[in-house]
Every structure is written in C-alpha cells, then in structure tokens.
Design brief:
By secondary structure, the protein is of the alpha+beta class. It is 19% helix and 33% strand. The chain has a domain of 123 residues: VC0467-like (3-Layer(aba) Sandwich), CATH 3.40.1740.10. A hairpin with a 2-residue loop joins strand 7 and strand 8.
Amino acid sequence: MKNSAPTFLKHHFLIAMPHMADPHFAQTVTYLIEHNDQGAMGLVINKPNGLTLADVLEQLRPDDAAPMLCHSLPIFAGGPVQTDRGFVLHPAGPQFQATLELGELGLSTSQDVLFAIADGTGPERYLIALGYAGWDAGQLEAELADNAWLTCQADPAILFDIPFDQRLDAAAARLGVTLALLTSQAGHA
C-alpha cells in the first residue's frame, strides 16, 4: 500500500462542529494561516473579545486620543495562545515593520499597522486579533478525524466583508451546510 502525502489546510477555514465543547472554539470559524507537518496556526475570525482598537491604542499611545472610528473597530479573540500578542490580517500589499506575506493576504504583527489603521493610512480591509490558535504536529489531524471541524477554502470576503456574527454560517454555506441542522452530538457512521 502506497503512503499518500498528508493534506495540509493552509488558507482554509476550520468551522467548529455544533458539538465542539472547547469554549475557545465553540461556534467559531478559524482562518488557518499555516498548516504543515510541524503543526498549525490560525486566527478565530468571529469572536470579538470586547475590546476595540481605541482600547488598544490607549495602551500604546496614551498621550494621543484615538480617532472616533477606532471606538467601533472590534478586536477579536484570535485564540488561546499568547493572548497579549496582536495580529492584523489584511490583503497583501501594505508592508509594515513585521509583515508575513501569505499569498493574497498579509499578517502584520507590529504596532505600526495599528497606528496606520487609526490614522487612515493603513489597509482598507483588516481583521485585528489578540492571541492565536495553535496545534502541535498531528493534533489538528486528530481533531479532524474526530469530526470536530468542517473545512473549506478560505474566502477573503468572509474575512473582511461579512459581519463577524454571520461569518460562521457564511463559511458553512460554502460547503452547502446549515450548521443549525446538524446534531450537536458527536458520532461516527
């Protein structure tokens, strides 16, 4: 029997199944930034953490008042790992002090991207998160085998254009699935 190469899900969405019990991931959709034989990293894209960009800027630039727009820009709980570390996912193009090119997207981790957004010179489309989701080698594959997640190709429109509270259903709809119709009980056929 020939061994097949593993399927990696970089640039895919992980859609939590209704029976997901982990409070960090229940009813979430996660964008996978990286997935390889070493593990996986992603950002939860539909779970605001209660902070706004104005709250973050108050800590970074305490002497400057944040523009009014910043008071309505949510910060997302990107995952349970390094929750004090910020990530800005945006379309490729703008380069900041620390930007990782992800094909058609960029991931910036330096403060200058936040200042640029606040000042109106940053990317027009973005998602700001604190923390990330991480999986050790083989861990995500085991969760997929246990039917914890559905997966589909990521769609930038879901990341940036659809309101956060509609992203989970929009991602599932890419698969033709209505999550509300799925049972919340795990099982195997």
